[in-house]
Batch of 2 targets.
Target 1
Amino acid sequence: MSCQPSIHWSCRTDEEFLADVAIPKSALRCGSDLRALSKRELLGIFVALRARHICDVGKATEDEGRMIESESDLLLSRYLFPRRQDTYKFQMAISAMRGETLFDEHETGHPVTFADFLEGMYRDRHGPTQENTNAFKTHTVSTTSY
């Protein structure tokens, strides 16, 4: 918006705004981003921000247990706003960290065994293309998306 007295009030178009930010089209399509939020969804955002703070404190103090403490807030946030992509990615990463503490590497439920399950499930669904075979092995989830 322009606040200069000689210029009338104006706003960029959606296309101009989207050209400047990195919001995936899937986030717009599923209702994760750039729309009015309900009170419940807004509360979910605030809870996710609290989780982010707890996780950041854990990172700063190199306390993985503290980072894992953020999981309960992330789960609550996802309950309140299940379509929020950033919270989904963040929660999945933290829940994988929790899985490492709950299971030995060879046990069903450990992130490694779950990763094998997911890779098989999606390979069957989408076919074993080079792209989706390598995507799982090279993709990392950032807990800094907020």
Target 2
Amino acid sequence: MKYYFRLALLLGILFLSTNAVHAQMVSLEEAKEVPGMKAGEWTAKIIMISTSDNMELTHEMGNEKAIRALEGDNTYRYELTHHFNEDQQDAGFCKTTVKVVLPEGGETFRLVLYPDKCYKGSFKLAGITCVESAGGVYAQAGKSKVVFSSQYNDLSIWCNDVLLFDQGKLSPNDSQHVVGNLSADNGLTDYELIFTLAGSDESPNPVFKVKTPTSGTLNVKLDKEMVARTSYKFNVVKSVKTIEKVLSFGEKLAVAQKYWNEYPTATESSFFEAGENAFAEVLNHKDCPVAERDSFYAKKNRLAAIRVDTYKKQRAHEVFLQREASLGYEAEGTFKFLMAERNFCRRIVERYPELVGYKTDLEELEKKLLNHPARETTVVRRDYQVITGKVTKNDSYVGDISGTEIYGTNDAKAKKESRVRLGMVGSDGTYRIVLKDPYNYLFFYGEKEARPITTETETLDVELTR
């Protein structure tokens, strides 16, 4: 009972620390005047280049609509022509705010328009995504810390237009209020910025720019005003390609199936989210065959469940690193989140045995726990019933085998309210489920009745029927 109370408390702490996620994945180059390009008498043109065919371009001082044209391979030109009214003609200029929006996010910027001038910029997906995650306490009076953590070891980072990291290396600067530091561990590089706030004339709301040598530039801001004794963290990762709604059903299905084929080797929660969204697009398509919808739903739900569990493990690891930095590796508070990460990893291995990367993670986490100074001297471990098997189907069963959901129940008819989801059939047609509670039957979704089991059942090969 003590163990489960601690685990429940730990989960509460973990999810209370997960604040609203703010993600940035679009790159803006503000429009600048193009020397020599003419717009025409008492007009001005705003031109924005994008790789998306679904961008909105507007500005606050007019209701003109932008015209889209193909600029090159997978590149589009959005051109908005502003006509000066009488007041603007008398003033000789027009101050406005330009707004550009993609499905993945939007930006605004100020622009002063002059007659017969053209202004050109770009707005597109950057190729990288910056996600603000839960921060923590920074135990230094009058100081705060901002960390950009990334798989990229060649990031360039600016703060208020001052270059602090140049392609993964510290860049010399004259700032007296911010100091940079680099560290690397487990394939991740941490770009640390230590801000001195006490007596500083610097803005408490710094604006960062982040890019790789091959990506666009992200403009990143804190969600709240920077305060002392606080740590802020951003994760910079490779962007997942957005699925375009213009694809045919066959093309959407091909994209979704590619995610399905590759998911056993994936390790990023964002990959499973993208796969889940891909199958949602398939199911929402007007040409989706009714006979295959159950199979698509099963695959979508499988990826959704994996996304949740892998995200929990990822969050536990992030909080563990934060506790390690603030409390030290040997502290009990650090040990709790190491244990939480192990528990989430074990859940992943038990629920999704087809995921090949997590068994090694689990072994490494078990070793760390075993050798941790704060571990409990007595470990209570319960052995659960495990059932494995091979699944095939006969001619009466419509749909794919892979992704079929498996439920535990004590009702032979497997009424919906009696069922508890235990797992799914893997892409290779096999399954492995762990019974943490006793059940008399296993129910494979799509069949009419459940299949009996006993406490001695270890293997159950199944031929699915309707």
